[in-house]
Design brief:
Blueprint lengths: L5 H8 L6 H7 L3 H6 L9 H22 L5 H11 L2 H11 L1 H4 L4 H5 L6 H46 L1 H12 L4 E9 L6 E8 L2 E8 L1 E3 L3 H17 L5 H23 L5 E3 L2
Antiparallel strand pairs: 1-2, 2-3, 4-5
Length: about 270
């Protein structure tokens, strides 16, 4: 080890290896293996590969069991936020992983010990090493020792961004009566209406809110292709022969292009400030 002996590092991570070589391998960067003429497999990349998969599985299982009302899309976003490179690098810094890494001179001189990508990979490699050394029960305990609080705090931040979901979760804990949402009023000219929405539960009004919406002028470029084909059809230009075949082929393609433009934000409905 560079600056920390194995026993001290094991105390920091709260895990004692039966096979110390697995821990050394988890902390061996490929640059060090290359400089010391070790084999191509004698670095932490394979353990990082394993640790990445194990981390995803353990975190996914925890979220599946503890957040039964959260849809798949939100689960995916939450997991991505929890196990992202920056998050894992932060955990590595708290454990002092950077001080223990075996790095090549080139990586050492360019700040490799503090680089997020190297620290995150090493964190996952340590997970892989614990999995190989102690099995799934040991590695799950290790991961959740760090991740449980992080998952919950990250989820709280997600809640703050999605008040509707948060409200539904709170209500569902104490009642089976669903929330109801309704537009109860609207005023203003057609091009700039203000809508008033109301949420009720079991006949009681929980809150009201108002807002405006408008369709941006960017709608026109997206529907031009469809309009063009329609005009050609009406004029009889694209109804016979090869032109007719091309029209039949092009209509779904142009509709797809319009849909892609909408997904890309060229067409969208946005709040009016």
């Amino acid at each position: 080890m560079n600056h920390l002996n194995l026993e001290e590092f094991e105390r920091k991570i709260a895990y004692t290896f039966s096979d110390k070589n697995l821990l050394i391998l988890a902390l061996t960067h490929s640059s060090y293996a290359n400089e010391t003429k070790k084999g191509s497999h004698e670095n932490n990349e394979r353990l990082e590969f394993l640790g990445d998969a194990v981390l995803d599985m353990v975190v996914s299982e925890y979220m599946y069991r503890h957040f039964p009302k959260m849809p798949e899309g939100e689960l995916t976003k939450l997991r991505a936020a929890v196990v992202c490179e920056g998050s894992l690098a932060e955990l590595s810094r708290k454990l002092g992983v950077g001080r223990c890494l075996l790095l090549g001179k080139g990586e050492e001189s360019t700040g490799g010990r503090s680089r997020d990508s190297i620290l995150a990979d090493a964190f996952e490699a340590i997970i892989g090493a614990i999995c190989m050394d102690g099995g799934m029960e040991a590695v799950t305990k290790y991961i959740m020792g760090f991740m449980e609080e992080r998952i919950e705090s990250t989820k709280s931040n997600f809640r703050n961004l999605d008040c509707k979901t948060h409200l539904q979760e709170v209500i569902q804990k104490t009642s089976k009566v669903p929330l109801k949402y309704a537009i109860v009023d609207e005023h203003g000219p057609d091009h700039n209406k203000v809508f008033v929405a109301e949420v009720t539960h079991d006949g009681a009004v929980l809150g009201k809110g108002s807002g405006k919406t408008k369709v941006k002028n960017k709608l026109l470029p997206a529907i031009i292709p469809v309009i063009l084909v329609s005009v050609l059809t009406i004029m009889g230009i694209a109804t016979t022969g090869i032109a007719g075949i091309l029209m039949i082929v092009m209509i779904p393609i142009l509709i797809l292009i319009s849909w892609i433009m909408w997904k890309a934000g060229i067409v969208k409905v946005v709040p009016n400030d």
